[in-house]
Amino acid sequence: xxxxxxxxxxxxxxxxxxxxxxxxxxxxxxxxxxxxxxxxxxxxxxxxxxxxxxxxxxx
Length: 59
Hints:
Distance between the termini: 22 Å
Structural class: mainly alpha
Oligomer: single chain
Radius of gyration: 14 Å
């Protein structure tokens, strides 16, 4: 279903505004890899540990 929605959106020129990294981070959290997600945020954005944890918690 999601693939169809993406295809239709692409054909209509609708852009997915969610950063790709958020999808990756959400998947890591769902897989129980919250610490890895926090590390990834720190690498990608240069956030402090606290900032990265807050970012992941808000996803």
